[in-house]
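Input record (one chain):
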Amino acid sequence: WNGVYFASVPMQAVAIPNPGYAFSHWEGDLDSDRAKVEFTPSGDFSLTAHFVPAGDEPTDTLLHYWHFNNLSGTATSIASDYSLLESGTITYPGSGDGYMDSRTHRAEDPVSNLNLLMGQQSDQGAVLRARNPSHSRELIIHAPTTGFDKIKVAYATTRTSNGAKRQSLHYSPDGGITWKPTVQGYEVPLLPQWELKEFNLSGMQGVANNPDLLLKIVFWGESATGSTGNNRFDNLSISGTTYFVNVEETDYAQPRVTLYPNPARDHIILDIDPTHFREGNMKMFTLDGRPIMSKRITSAQTTLSIADLPKGIYIVSFTNALYRVSLRVVKQ
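The corresponding structure, as predicted from the sequence alone:
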């Protein structure tokens, strides 16, 4: 659709999928994964809605993971045990005598076996303790989500008898200048019980594709002001999805196109259904559009070396006379 509209007047656009498809993201002068968007044009403005087959929506990718099993003693900053690209950190700033330390597994004082990922074993390692007084401190989680959307957060939590009885999770899209709540506060179970808290941040403005994303856990309620007691955390994970394959056809059946492994370290393989393959040109770009590689593709399966590229997210585009395909790949 092309149209003429008044400048400086807010407008809305809504992406409505056909049966069997789901909305993926907007591309153009506005980058968003929300189906309904509002914008104020000041000149020519272009938007393209992308959709994916409903049964083939992107799968979650683990971005950050803290299992805390190597944590020992007190800490002022805790780096993620795993990060796909940019590392994450946890701090506990504020006033008063509260601090972070660890507690190793004991049968009468167990770690959590909820949300175990990446081969971590049950009843092993350590957990993070946020010591009282906690009402004057906040657990700050720096979790870059560059290149990913549909962000999800999960962690196991519990408390001692004197620990804060309530928590709430907030996020900051601007590195801590402003904060917004994700959900209302929740009750914290008492040891030895652990409870898995899961938060879907999809559609929350400023969460997706944000290198400065911060999360914080706030402690409140009875006992948060005490001089003893603590709240505990284990197996904290942050995941998201990259945008799905985008195929633009001209006059040909849609090809099956895959790019693997993804994430990758040394090489990637561009694999196109031989039935629909035609020779074409491959180009690779950084997320800001800078070209870094080009190659003539003459076979349905082509191996591309990425060993010399820095860690990050890249766009691989394949174009021939019949269709154009764009895919995202993560270099670890």
